[in-house]
Amino acid sequence: KGVLAERLGCSPDDAFAHLSRLSQQSNVRLADLAVSIVASMVPTPAKSLTQVPGLTPADAERYQRISALAAASSDLSGLATALSECADRVAFLRLDTDGGSPTELASSGSGPSGAGAAAVAIAAGHAVWQPFEGTQIRAAAIPIRLDDRVAGAITFTWSSSISSSGDFTDSERRFLAAAAHLAQRTAVRVWATPDAESVALVL
């Protein structure tokens, strides 16, 4: 509890409640999840904040929190939950083989999935930043690459201008890009597990 409380900046009881919820959502034993989080405390170059230049101190702290939670995720739902503090809703989507609309694989939060922005990001192979101007939602869609190809996208959406407004600042873009990169590293591990859904995603 203490490690997670320190990472999340909350009380040990709140940390345990969060750990229990994450355990239930990801269907991972609480003890295994705790071991993963403690193991994530060991610094590695991939988790070093020097690998994420330009983050504000607040964003760097937030990145450390989501990094610890993402490291403990065993599936995309758990990963979406780990990233949920980034936006009103976080979703993982992939484009169907028939070229139709993107299919949502997992999400956390409420509001629209940002499927339109995801479709553009997947097709273009680069991030799409959609401000509120002329749209009902604010969305960031960043492609997820597996084996040097775009396999899908992660979307961060806000459904009201109260929670976030206007175009994305450089600071927001850096933080969301870092969160998406973290998600990509974790998604590669999660999607590589030998179950039918994961294999279908990678093929």
Structure notes:
The protein has a five-stranded antiparallel β-sheet with strand order 2-1-5-4-3, sandwiched between helices. Mean pLDDT is 76; it is low at 42-50 and 192-203. Helix 1 packs across helix 2 (12-26) and helix 4 (57-71) packs antiparallel against helix 5. The protein is built from eight helices and five strands, in the order H-H-H-H-H-E-E-H-E-E-E-H-H. By secondary structure, the chain is α+β, with helices and mostly antiparallel strands. It has helices spanning 2-8, 12-26, 30-39, 57-71, 76-82, 115-124, 170-191, 196-202, and strands spanning 89-95, 102-109, 128-130, 138-146, 149-158.
Task: Record the SSE blueprint.
Blueprint: H1 2-8, H2 12-26, H3 30-39, H4 57-71, H5 76-82, E1 89-95, E2 102-109, H6 115-124, E3 128-130, E4 138-146, E5 149-158, H7 170-191, H8 196-202
Antiparallel strand pairs: 1-2, 1-5, 3-4, 4-5
Helix pairs in contact: 1-2, 2-5, 4-5, 4-7
